[in-house]
Write a structure and sequence with these properties.
With 179 residues, this protein is of the alpha/beta class. The protein has helices spanning 2-16, 27-36, 68-80, 91-100, 117-126, 144-152, 165-171; strands at 23-25, 51-53, 60-64, 84-88, 105-108, 135-139, 157-160. The chain has two domains: 2-53, no CATH class; 60-173, Response regulator (Rossmann fold), CATH 3.40.50. Helix 2 (27-36) links the parallel strand 1 (23-25) and strand 2.
Length: 179
Amino acid sequence: MLDDILQCVQAFEREHNASPDVVYINPFHYDALRRYHPDVFLSGETFPGAFACNSPDVARVLIVEDDADISSLLVYTLKSARLNPVASADCKSAWKILSDHPPDLVLLDWMLPDMSGIELLQRIRRNTSLAGIPVIMLTARAEESDRVRGLASGADDYIVKPFSTRELCAHQQPTAYIQ
């Protein structure tokens, strides 16, 4: 990952004949860099005009949620974290998004109008080009058997509604999901 960021900086230097003053690191990559490369100085702050390496447009998060209020909250939270959320209210449109523009992460509700989130998750895991996309189940199904089934079906994590945005962000901590 550090090599990728260095290549990004070198590309900037070639294009602009100058070194960037500041390199913005995607939030998902920031903590991983702190963990695996503690020798690299990183500021948690961003600055106006900072050169964006691994810009937020790269980290796309597909939200598959039929409740408009929850979907809006998720979109707002992810945008605040400098991510690029894409929302879908059903599995059919989610599958089109997955097929056309695979995201870096999927937040998936279980109970959806046209198909269960578990069925969509299993379909994702069977598709070789999509199988590696991390999926976090985000659902009101709170029983232990539900959590076990979600994880056994291929979910990388399982969050029970209601949830706080702090909890969601804690579950999404960096490259545990997005590489």
